[in-house]
Structure formats: C-alpha cells, structure tokens
Amino acid sequence: MGCFQSCMSKDEPDSQGPTETSRLLPEPTQPIPTMSDSSKTDEESALNRVLQKTANDVIDVTYIEPHSMENAEVSGRTREYRSQVASLRGVSRPVAKLPPNNQPPAVMLSKELVSPADVRFVTDRSEATAAAVESMEVKHGEPLVVQFAAP
Amino acid sequence: MEASLESQMNEIMSQPGVTGVLCADEQGLALSAQGTLTPHSAGLVSVVTEKACQLRHGTEPDEKPVVVMEFDTGNVLIRSHNNSTLAVHKV
C-alpha cells in the first residue's frame, strides 16, 4: 500500500515536506565562484615556493653523479681503514689472568701468589660485615602477636 | 634493618678492582649480593669455607682461612667470620 501511494502521488506538488523523491541538494541558482587573478598569482607563488623547498631538501639517490676517485686514493683509503679496524680488534681482547698450563711445574709454582693486601682487605671486610650482620634487628611498628578475646 | 650491611657492601664494591660481593649466613642463605656474584652461589661459598676449615690441622680453631679461587676473569676471595661468610670477586 505504501508503494501504491508513492506511485500515485508522484505528480502532486511537494506541499507536505520532503519525500523520497525530493531533491537533496539545492538547485544551483548561484554560479560557482571562480578565482580572481591576484589570488591565482598567490597560489602559484606558494606552489612554486613549495616545489623549490622540496627540490632543495629531497635527495634523489637514484640520480647521483658518478664521483670519480683515483685508484691510488681508493687503495690508500682501504689500507687506512683496514689498519684502524685491526687496531680496534686488538684492544677488545681480554688479558688472560691464569698462566698457561704448558709450563713446567717449577715455573708455575714460582708465579706470584695473591697479594697480601687483598688477603688483609678480605679479612678486615669480613669482620666488619659480620658485625653488621649481628647488628641487624627486626623493626616492626605493629605488635607481632595479637591476643584474641577468648570466650 | 639491613642498612649497615648494605653500606658495608657498597663500600666494598666501591674499591678499585672489585666487581662482585656476596654475604651469606651460616646456613648458606644469601643476605646480600651485588655485581658479578649472584645469590645462587651463596650455598657453594659457605661450603667452600667450611671444608677449608676442616682441612687445616694443628692451627687455632678460631683462625679462619682465606680461600682464594683464581679464574681467568679474576680472583674470588672467601672468608667466614662468626656466623657469616663474605665473598669478593676482584680482577
């Protein structure tokens, strides 16, 4: 019935408000505003500025002028870089503390023992630490044992 | 509660060459550990000093030995006093 009503009343004037056939956009009574010459010039200058800034900032890696270097210069730089890398490699190697085990026993046993200063240091610190451990006591703000009211 | 112990440990760590320090009680439980020495080694450290004391004959029982273990990365010095054991890792 709703369908019949819409088909039969399509020629009637739109006096009851917008319907499903009424136009959503207003009629184009006014002409579309066009840019004036001054504003067009400003737009073009702004566009040119943006293009210039982009051309200055962007680095096109696909187009790089071939940088020619002499072979002697290239080999010299390669030598220099390799020597620097080799010197850095030697620095990071840790110094072995233990003596190698392929030496005769007499040489091994004659190596320097632990320094007396270290022994004295550990002795003093162990006594101080033991005193600190004995001075530890439990500090509590609330009573640890609570008496419940027994019936 | 443990402020005095922590201050002692910090003072030991501030010494040049010290990379780790560990303090354990008489049961081998870690009281404090810093640097390269972790609480996991507290039990082993206590046992090492205990066995070292048993090895010594003819010496005064009150004199505690200092056990030094030499590694490639440095020395670990262990000594017990009263009821606590201290281990220091020094390069």
TrEMBL record, chain A:
Q: Per the record, what is one GO cellular component? A: membrane raft
GO BP terms: namely: cellular response to amino acid stimulus; cholesterol homeostasis; endosomal transport; lysosome organization; positive regulation of MAPK cascade; positive regulation of TOR signaling; regulation of receptor recycling
InterPro entries, from UniProt? Answer: LAMTOR1/MEH1
Question: Where is it localised?
Answer: Late endosome membrane; Lysosome membrane
Q: Which UniProt keywords apply?
A: Endosome, Lipoprotein, Lysosome, Membrane, Myristate, Palmitate
Report membrane topology. Lipid-anchor
Which intervals of the chain are annotated as region Disordered? 1-48
Main location class = membrane
Annotated GO MF terms? guanyl-nucleotide exchange factor activity; molecular adaptor activity
Source organism, top-level taxon: Eukaryota
Give the record's family classification.
Answer: Belongs to the LAMTOR1 family.
**Protein's recorded name:** Ragulator complex protein LAMTOR1
Give the source species. Geodia barretti (Barrett's horny sponge)
UniProtKB/TrEMBL annotation, chain B:
Question: Which GO terms are recorded in the biological process aspect for this UniProt protein?
Answer: cellular response to amino acid stimulus; negative regulation of apoptotic process; positive regulation of TORC1 signaling
Q: Which UniProt keywords apply?
A: Cytoplasm, Lysosome
Instruction: Give the highest taxon in the source lineage.
Output: Eukaryota
Query: Quick check: keyword Cell division in the entry?
Result: no
Q: Where in the cell is it found?
A: Cytoplasm; Lysosome
Q: Which GO terms describe its molecular function?
A: guanyl-nucleotide exchange factor activity
Give me the Gene Ontology terms describing cellular component. Answer: lysosome; Ragulator complex
**Would you identify the family this protein belongs to, as annotated?**
Belongs to the LAMTOR5 family.
Q: What is this protein called?
A: Late endosomal/lysosomal adaptor and MAPK and MTOR activator 5
Q: What organism is listed for this UniProt entry?
A: Geodia barretti
